[in-house]
Write a structure and sequence with these properties.
Mean pLDDT: 96
Strand order of the largest sheet: 2-8-7-6-5-3-4
Helix content: 40-55%
CATH architecture of the largest domain: 3-Layer(aba) Sandwich
CATH superfamily of the largest domain: Type I PLP-dependent aspartate aminotransferase-like (Major domain)
Shape: globular
Distance between the termini: 52 Å
Radius of gyration: 21 Å
Order of helices and strands: HHEHHEHEHEHEHEHEEHHHEHEEEH
Strand content: 5-15%
Largest sheet: 7 strands, mixed
Number of helices: 14
Low-confidence stretches: none
Length: 400
């Protein structure tokens, strides 16, 4: 009898975490490493949010809460959806989890049966396919290359749909590409989904507020209200408010789905951290100027990185609409050899050689389902980014 579950053999460790850990190990050994692999804002959580957490501790709000969120936080989330997205939800249609990842995981685990398919545009966040596999479903990967702007087209969506399709996952702006769907592009997708009444939509909106150049964020249930009863809209406080470690995500959807997710959560983690919930409430109801200020910083960094990478031989870097990532192509470097003699056979070899030879940690494109690319997170200082670009340029110039 095998000790480990067969389900575990279906999934792989997170490549982004693996690269971050490898960079940390090299740094601990004394190497000069610039880490551009982790998707985490480098700013402190705003003062009023931290104070709300401290106040909650001092007030003794350290006990169990309702399994999937306090009533006051759920009310604040309802208000957020109405204020920012024009969507009406009741607290019974809201669930709160330990980060956005748990919301996605709960939804998939609560709904998937063997043989169910989930359409996932690539490049994708590394955890989507593995969550589907853990839920017993089958990920259907739809490549969305650089020529499509890394966006799913209605034609590609239509071709991917089968009688077994249960979910479509949409992430805008995207991790890893930063690509966003404008209103017309999103409507083209929802028009397709209106024709398939048994398909549900999982909308990952975690980067909603990190959009640039006047890009207007939209979410599927907002664009097409007739789909609202089969949309789960996921969001959270991690990226918008620099609260990654607080671990609060939330979702809004039909009560039947929300109750099923709560049932699952009641037998797994139970409630999210009580202190974090009160801090998240302060984030959603308090001053929002932090978002505007941080967005301006991220846009400046994006422009710095895009310009720098496009000046590197063999790299083509599109300008993303949002998030804090770029996803450049290294197609012209495949088949070359680095200055230290490493054959660049694919984007994983590129990323490993870049780390070993220049001390820059990035994540290879195959981890996100679309090669030959790599992802850079520019959620770090301008000085670090400038130095990293210089090292990447030197690496590329050494390839022959």
């Amino acid at each position: 009898m095998a000790f480990l579950s067969d389900n575990l053999a279906r999934v792989k460790p997170s490549p982004t975490i693996a690269m971050t850990n490898r960079a940390a190990e090299l740094r601990a050994q004394g190497h000069d490493i610039i880490g551009l692999s982790a998707g985490e804002p480098d700013f402190d959580t705003p003062d009023h949010i931290r104070q709300a957490g401290k106040d909650a501790i001092d007030a003794g709000r350290t006990r169990y809460t309702a399994v999937d969120g306090t009533p006051s936080l759920k009310r604040a989330i309802c208000d957020k959806f109405q204020r920012e997205n024009g969507l009406d939800y009741t607290p019974a249609q809201i669930t709160v989890g330990t980060g956005g990842k748990q919301i996605l995981f709960n939804a998939l685990l609560a709904t998937l049966n063997p043989g169910d398919e989930v359409i996932i545009p690539a490049p994708y966040w590394v955890s989507y396919p593995d969550m589907v596999l853990l839920g017993g479903g089958s990920p259907v990967i739809v490549p969305c290359d650089i020529d499509s702007g890394f966006r799913l087209t209605p034609e590609a969506l239509t071709q991917a749909i089968t009688p077994r399709t249960k979910w479509v996952i949409l992430n805008s702006p995207s991790n890893p590409s930063g690509a966003g769907y404008d209103a017309d592009q999103m409507r083209a997708l929802t028009d397709v989904l209106l024709q398939h009444p048994d398909i549900w939509i999982l909308s990952d909106d975690i980067y909603e507020h990190l959009v640039f150049d006047g890009f207007r964020f939209v979410t599927p249930a907002q664009i097409e209200p007739r789909l609202k009863d089969r949309v789960l809209t996921m969001n959270g406080v991690s990226k918008a408010y620099a609260m990654t470690g607080w671990r609060i995500g939330y979702g809004a959807g039909p009560e039947t789905l929300i109750r099923a997710m709560a049932k699952l959560q009641s037998q797994s983690t139970s409630n999210p951290c009580s202190i974090s919930q009160f801090a998240a409430e302060a984030a959603l109801t308090g001053p929002q100027d932090y978002i505007t200020d941080s967005r301006a910083v991220f846009q400046r960094r994006r422009d710095l990185v895009v310009a720098g990478l496009n000046a590197c031989p063999g790299i083509t870097c599109p300008t993303p609409q949002g998030a804090f990532y770029v996803y450049p192509s290294i197609r012209d470097l495949i088949g070359t050899t680095s200055a230290a003699g490493t054959r660049i056979e694919n984007d994983e070899a590129f990323a490993n050689a870049l780390l070993d030879e220049q001390g820059v940690a990035v994540v290879f494109g195959a981890a996100f389902g679309l090669s030959p690319h790599f992802r850079i997170s520019y959620a770090t200082s301008d000085a670090q980014l400038t130095q990293a670009i210089d090292r990447i340029r030197a690496f590329c110039e050494g390839c022959h």
